Amino acid sequence: MITYEYPLNERIRTLLRLEDLYDRVRFFLGKQNAHGHHAGLTGIFEIVEVASRADLKSDLLQELDRQRTFLEALRTNPAISEEKLNGVLREIESAFATLHATSGKTGQSLRENEWLMSIKQRVAIPGGTSEFDLPSYHHWLHHAPERRRADLETWLQPLLPIHAALSIVLRVLRESGRTVSLIAYQGVYQQTPAEKPAQMLRLSLADELACVPEISANKYALNVRFLLPEGVQKSKVYEHDVPFELAFCNL
């Protein structure tokens, strides 16, 4: 199965973009070669840009606090495992405390590093980090992999509280959805959403199906068209019935 997640507001869209960036950075930090570490540093720069949104930190703190209050109210429920509940609460409290303790704008310490910012400016230019443009960066890329990785871990460290918080929020969001099996007849599906608007849709379909979903949703209607994935100039609907699974997710 391939799962496609479709955010229905800007806040969830930002969290999903950040999650993808953190995963990408972690992947490239595990590499040994200079090209991998260059890609990792580029990812860190992208995280700084996306995470610097003014209300992101306060949004995450507010949501963690809301989830903590909700879970505390479940202590009297005999159907809930107290051990598991305590584990989740400890995770939320740790993420909340760490994020709350961070001061200033996200990634401010990186923004104050003139050498890193000079690289960041050149990264935006195609081929702009060539050795004749940034000889000092070329020198850094020739350090031992362990030294480069240590530097990257140091630069990533101030951004980790955001990652810990958004990981919890997205996990709760994903687990909130109830999955239903549906069929898009001749590649098209339409539905009137439930009374409570969703924050994210999760659509899953078999990976052997030669189509991809195009989702359009608002508070009045949900429209899904399954299109041929090939690089044709104009989008073409997959004109066969498509069985798929759909979940509406809410915090």
User: What is the helical fraction, as a range of percent?
Assistant: 40-55%
What is the total number of structural domains?
A: 2
Radius of gyration, in Å, reads: 22 Å
Spatial shape: globular
Q: How many strands, which pairing sense, and closed or not: the largest β-sheet?
A: 4 strands, antiparallel
CATH homologous superfamily annotation of the largest domain: YacF-like
* CATH structural class of the largest domain: Mainly Alpha
Order of helices and strands: EHHHHHHHHHEEEEEE
CATH topology of the largest domain: YacF-like
SS-derived structural category = alpha+beta
What is the β-strand count? 7
How are the strands of the largest sheet arranged? 1-4-7-2
Number of helices: 9
| Distance from first to last alpha carbon | 24 Å
Bin the strand percentage: 15-25%
- Low-pLDDT stretches are none
| Average of the residue pLDDT scores | 89
CATH architecture of the largest domain: Orthogonal Bundle
Task: Write out key terms for the chains shown.
YacF-like; 4-stranded antiparallel β-sheet; globular; 251 residues; 9 helices; alpha+beta
SSE map:
Blueprint: E1 2-7, H1 10-29, H2 34-51, H3 56-72, H4 82-101, H5 108-111, H6 114-123, H7 135-141, H8 145-156, H9 160-175, E2 178-184, E3 188-191, E4 200-205, E5 212-217, E6 222-227, E7 242-249
Structure description:
The strands form two sheets. A four-stranded antiparallel sheet has the order 1-4-7-2. It has helices at residues 10-29, 34-51, 56-72, 82-101, 108-111, 114-123, 135-141, 145-156, 160-175; strands at 2-7, 178-184, 188-191, 200-205, 212-217, 222-227, 242-249. The chain is built from nine helices and seven strands; from the N terminus they run βαααααααααββββββ. The chain has 251 residues and is α+β, with helices and mostly antiparallel strands. The protein has two domains: 2-170, YacF-like, CATH 1.10.3900; 177-249, YacF-like domains (YacF-like, Sandwich), CATH 2.60.440. The longest helix has 20 residues, at 10-29. Helix 3 packs antiparallel against helix 4 (82-101).
